[in-house]
């Protein structure tokens, strides 16, 4: 369909799923076990309702904000997701160019399907901010080399993923016919993969990617170690309970992402918006110590605004951007960002705010019933 027929995030997802090769669709769409967390990530937003304010001047409403000090046109970033080339030959470059055109920020996965240098070179200008998502290699030297490489290439932050270090059970992906050649097509030689024939068939696409991850990371050892290798800000991606949010803030991390990897890792991990609500209630001090982001299940401008009211600085989308670039390349990424911008602006004006910092906890209420 014409891009102009795509009017919301859901349309983008449905269209891309029809266009994608089955294997790519299965890798992108898959989630852990029974997909309870994946489904609830999105559904949980429907338990939060607004208290819009009226009679508040809203002309000139501004959707822009900052993330780690970098300006962004909307409070939405592209969350690092592996193997964009499974969906489109230009893969991650579509995301970089689309991000530039719309003024949003891209996080690049360790398991990107183009080299980190190729992606950095696709920036529209040298000061277009891009962030790096790190799966720390179990060998410290290899990991340090990678961190130094991306820092030298101009990446502006390290997002250390801590929630998906071991293979998980993604049955859609596992059942899809899978061969080593398909896997290699999407593979950038720099990441942690070292799949052997047979292994990837059993584990699905993801299994081949995580073989060399450091599964022995700790707060005491790993954060100081990364600090010692780079000057870049460190963000922990994959916080799933209040206690770890506190530990990350106390460890001095510049940011945390409340995330369960889009429901792809441990089924029954709490939906991030529910966790955000809990952190707000139990440990509001976390928000003054570190920037808090969430990802998972965000499909609407109202989802974004609920998260911001509860204290999130930014929200990330994973699958939606993969789908957009798969179906329409760079233009799809631009279109998706504009859809979100329009929904966010409309939502802000209707809530009675004209700037992001006017979104406050009093504007949302959690209900204990599930809307139909
Ligand atoms: C991911 N995600 C992810 N996260 C990460 O830190 N490193 C990675 O390489 C990947 N790879 C990846 C591949 C695919 C196909 C998906 C769908 C996701 C997780 C991603 O960054 C993000 O946390 C979730 O996708 C957010 O959920 P939604 O927006 O997809 O619902």
Automatic annotation (TrEMBL):
GO terms for biological process: lactate metabolic process. Transmembrane segments: none annotated. The keyword Heme applies. Its main location: mitochondrion. GO terms for molecular function: heme binding; L-lactate dehydrogenase (cytochrome) activity; metal ion binding. It is an enzyme of class 1 (oxidoreductase). Homotetramer. This is L-lactate dehydrogenase (cytochrome). It catalyses: (S)-lactate + 2 Fe(III)-[cytochrome c] = 2 Fe(II)-[cytochrome c] + pyruvate + 2 H(+). Keywords: Flavoprotein, FMN, Heme, Iron, Metal-binding, Mitochondrion, Oxidoreductase. It is found in: Mitochondrion intermembrane space. Residues 1-369 form the FMN hydroxy acid dehydrogenase domain. In the C-terminal section; belongs to the FMN-dependent alpha-hydroxy acid dehydrogenase family. Its cofactor is heme b; FMN. The keyword Nucleotide-binding does not apply. GO terms for cellular component: mitochondrial intermembrane space. Its EC number is 1.1.2.3.
